Amino acid sequence: MNAAAPRPSDTPRGYWLLRPAGMALLVHRRGAWAGLLLAMAVLLVALGSLSVGTPSLPLAEVVAGLAGAGDPFNVFMLHELRLPRVAAGILSGAALGVGGCLLQTLARNRLATPGIIGIDDGATAFAVASIVAIPTSLAPPMLALAGATTAAALAFGLGGGGSRGYRFIVVGIAVGALFGAVTNFMLARSGIDAANLAYPWTVGSLNARAASTVALLGACLALCLPIAKMLGRDLQLLRFSDAVAVGLGTRLRRTRIAILVVTVLLTATAVAVAGPVGLVSLAAPEAARHLTGHRGVPIINSAWAGALLMIAADWAGRTVFAPVEIPVGVITAIVGGPYLLWILLREPRRTA
Amino acid sequence: MSRTAAHTQLRRTAIVCAALAAALMLASMLLGAGSLTPLDSLRALLGGGSEENTFIVYELRGPRTLLAVLVGVALGAAGTVMQAATRNPLAEPGLLGVSAGASFAVVLAIYYGADTVGMHFGIAILGALAGCFLVLLTTQMRGAGADPVRLVLAGAAFSSILVAMTTLILLHDQRSADEIRFWVIGALGGRPAGNLQWALPGVLAGLAMVGATAAALAALSLGEKVALGLGHRPVFTRVLAMAGVAVLVGTATAAAGPIVFAGLIVPYFARRLVGPDVRRALPLAMLIGPVVLLLSDILSRLAVRPYELPIGVVTACIGAPVLIAVVRSHRLPRL
Q: What is the pLDDT of residues B131-150, one digit of tens each?
């Protein structure tokens, strides 16, 4: 570590001061350690997930196969089947985690995540429409983006800009219910074949990803993560009241719109890959905040935590009831639902 | 508003609603997704059609219409009483997870081999009782229980867990997939014979239970202390009212599956028409309930002919805007 602190008083407690190329960079020590820990965990779970399946491979062969050595069949299986699935899981989990973290900060409420306020449902409804109802040349991801934008606009427009606490979230639930009804409506009027084609969109599964969609998600993540990181200071100020944030130099309107755009982009492309796995966007930022000691807005750590949750849930779904595969969305709902209830019912005692 | 004026208003509104329900019952007998024209249906209804048409009108649409009326009465009354008992204008059996509890109990029972209609009703009522118990428990907690909106969120979380577990059973047991699908979505048509015979006593029992608590609930709306002073027992009242709600919701769910939002729409309109007093809103809700259900059912048949929509899609399309309207209103109406 090239940490250099010329005068001890320069560096706040719990931070490292880095000076790469003449700039001064403060790194939150606990956050950095948490990020490292999460990254290691993602790597381990990814390796484990790569080794499990039919046939199961020992770890040594997985590593050899990834490097292109060993049995040609194993190489093919790892590179063509299992690796894309794990990559899709990591990318979509990261995108959902960051989206959740941003929206929670924007609405100043831990429950305001894309999955709960209906952005997932909007994306799903439009994507299903493109498959069963309106044959268009537009790819499902584009329509998922349109749906997510519509749902976010509706929830924010009707819910009073997200500054009205829980009411805004219930408006979001209603918007989600509306889009859910639209999805059911289209599935009901389509033939059984088209409905089967659209089914993966409605439960949330890593089974149905297309390579081009995953690439799009990767590009979107590469674009949005730096933007989210650059918004970091404004995000921290947003945790205070509007008046304080403005007083400290935040341009509220511009910041809010930027955050919302990034959130919608990330959520829509993630839903286009994995379907509505909404609870990742609730649990990942929560875990990240816990690990970093509730300081700041942990963007990068949310991404790691989301990726970890997603591939761990997918691993569990593939192995617990093997040979039947449980969609990752069902696993996250069963694990994440009680967690959500716990947050809801426990919260007042902490604030009181 | 004086007492007599309120009574006249209630009577006038009730007559209009009853007439509307009767007209919709007739429409429900005449309109359908199939190729049978309304005129032929009318002829069959009056006893002059072909054998096939008579069968469609009397054996298929008849029970369906009666079921819509029964379920409408049950859900309308359940929603109104639940809102009064929890003092929460957003309380609704579907949103708070009571319907989901009932249908999950039935799915579990089917998975373990329960296959008679009567058994489904009993198990659904048990499931609804468990759901109502959880809701009561939550409303008694400080903080979360007093906040109407947070209660809805907890209900949504609870429902999503149950739906996920239902999906899990569904994946595990493809044999009963078709039947289990019904328990997730709900439908009025194509229910087994014997459904009505079981639903009627359940609805009547539930109505008797919630009817007995109406006066005490009205006193409770003035506050716990006032109700005590007037000689009512708040805890007993709440428990009895919620048990009645459980019987109503369990019966409705066993008969027609979980139909979300009906219990929110009906009390909303009932309160707008005759004010917040539960003694006046309850009888009116029992008339508005069938109107809402019949209308939704007719729309679900006509919207995408020759297919049919799940009725929950129609109630969600009506109910979501109502939910938004209630939440957006400047101050949540206190009950």
A: 888 888 877 776 655 667 77
